Amino acid sequence: MIRMPEPDQQVLARRGEIIAALRRIVPGEGVVENENELRAFECDGLTAYRQLPMIAVLPSTTAQVAEVLRYCKANNIRIVPRGAGTSLSGGAMPLADGILLGMGKFKKILEIDLPNRCAVVQPGVTNLGISQAVRGQGLYYAPDPSSQIACTIGGNVAENSGGVHCLKYGLTTNNVIGVEIVTLDGEIIRLGGKHFDGPGYDLLGALVGSEGMLGVVTEVTVRLLPIPPTARALMIGFPSVESAGDCVAAVIAAGIIPGGMEIMDKLATEAAEAFVHAGYPLDVAALLIVELDGCAAEVDHLVAAVEHIATQHQAVSCRASTSEEERLLFWAGRKAAFPAVGRISPDYYCMDGTIPRKRIAEVLRRMTEMEQTYGLRVANVFHAGDGNLHPLILYDANRPGELQRAEDFGADILRLCVEVGGVLTGEHGVGVEKRDLMPTMFNETDLAQQQALKCAFDDAGLLNPGKVFPQLCRCAELGRMHIHGGKLPFPELERF
After folding, report:
1. Which three-class secondary structure state does DSSP give residue 423?
2. pLDDT at 234 exceeding the cut of 70
3. Which member of 54, 91, 143, 194 has the lowest number of beta carbons within 10 Å of its beta carbon?
């Protein structure tokens, strides 16, 4: 079971007083205290774990956010920022003695700056909403998680989300050029802007992917890209997942960088086809979808090149889209793969690890062996181009012990990712799901340095505590002095 910080009974005893204070800051319907209404916030996309927040607060202005944070710091109250709640790692899981700070009312597109090819939006704007707002100008926002119809840009910033097209166009960190954040002290600061880069420390880079632990984002400036003049998708069937993985590595090795490159195994393909009816072949062990974009002549050349590489890697079928409608249909099944798998299993556990492309075949083969060990099936859906795996472990929570087996299976998959030279997460973040696996990838010094950065922003440890770091310790403890053999380290240095 996931361990969270022990509730502060003194804070819980002051709940009525805290509610009254928050109502003065955020009047009207901005404070949610009723138990039934708080149920809407009890979990995020990691639904296996639920916890009612002490209170939910729904500010509508940056000034209100700043005042809430100042009040929380002055009164030693924990805060969990929340966007749309689509996080799959428990990043927005509430605390029993904490305030859940919902940013859903921040949903305006503040500016579309065509000369600088960027947009300034509030964090509650959906990912897809940005692209829809600028499509008429021939532009779009590149990162596109599968949940883009629901997930918000603020949550994307927190988790450094990716998506199908991150292979060629980058993740959130490559497409966000500025943010406005509120610190725990209630200070409103700006990092980055409409310019390409800035001097000094890369604080913007540190903030993107920080999982709500450094500050609360209230405004985001995103880079807009021109819609490619031509885009075509290839749907390629393979006799094995390994041959599909080898084809992915060969395409990249040939110097071709597709707009997107995704693999679904047979189980995921069958589920997606039954759900969307995209015309997927059902007699193949793996389906590879490759999108190529650019000018028409370039795309035609690359389509032929990828078809040739696929043939060399045992492809048994290959179909290229001939219209925009057909291209979108190819992707519709992939985008709907997660809900589609939900139709064939009572529950599934979505993993998120990243590996070197050349190890894809090996990792998928070892995952198949793990299926036998744990007695659970896996549907594989992943961003093959950048090695970001999303194995879906199928289980039934109503059967005793199956959730634990699914979690143990998932932990072994993530350990395998690190073993072959990969990392614990690609775009879902660490949250509580991978928190206790962090020592698999980082040593004690690494973790201490990461937590020291958090302490520089949040010395009280009140912003989203219990996430990311495997040991629940205070910032003051990071400065403790280790004494070995009765001697201080570096005795020649002056002590302050």
Report:
1. strand
2. yes
3. 194
Could you tell me the pLDDT band of residue 198, with boundaries at 50, 70 and 90? confident
> If DSSP codes are grouped into helix, strand and coil, which group holds residue 451?
helix
Residues 345-383 pLDDT 10s: 999 999 999 999 888 888 988 999 999 999 999 999 989
Helix (H) or strand (E) holding 298: helix 296-312
Residue 486 has pLDDT above 70, yes or no: no
Residues 6 or more apart whose CB falls under 8 angstroms from that of 124 comprise 83, 84, 103, 104, 105, 106, 107, 152, 153, 154
pLDDT tens digit sequence for 44-84: 999 999 999 999 999 999 999 999 999 999 999 999 999 99
Domains in the chain and their CATH numbers? 9-102 (3.30.43.10), 109-226 (3.30.465.10), 229-433 (3.40.462.10)
- Beta-bridge mates of residue 140: 225
pLDDT reported for residue 472: 60
Among residues 112, 327, 81, 318, the alpha carbon closest in space to that of 183 is found at: 81
CA distance 390 to 386: 12
- Has residue 303 got a pLDDT over 60? yes
Q: Sheet holding 98-102: strands in order across?
A: 31-32, 55-57, 98-102, 78-82
Single-letter code of the amino acid located at 230: T
Tell me how far apart the alpha carbons of residues 382 and 404 are, in angstroms, rounded to a whole number.
23
Q: What are phi and psi of 219, to 5 degrees?
A: -160, 140
Laid out side by side, the sheet with 176-182 consists of 109-113, 118-121, 216-223, 176-182, 188-192
Q: 231 pairs with which residues across the strands?
A: 293
Amino acid code (one letter) for 384: A
Backbone angles phi, psi at 31, to 5 degrees: -120, 125
| pTM: predicted TM-score of the whole model, two decimal places | 0.91
Q: What gap in Å lies between CA 148 and CA 309, rounded to an integer?
A: 31
> Under a CB-based contact definition with an 8 Å cutoff, are residues 181 and 216 in contact?
yes
User: How many degrees, rounded to 5, is the angle at CA 384 between CA 383 and CA 385?
Assistant: 95
The pLDDT value recorded for residue 478 is 63
Q: Is residue 128 within a helix (H) or strand (E), and if so which, with residue range?
A: helix 127-134
In angstroms, how far is CA 146 from the centroid of its own chain?
11
Tell me which amino acid residue 119 is: A
Q: How confident is the model at residue 197 (pLDDT cuts 50, 70, 90)?
A: confident
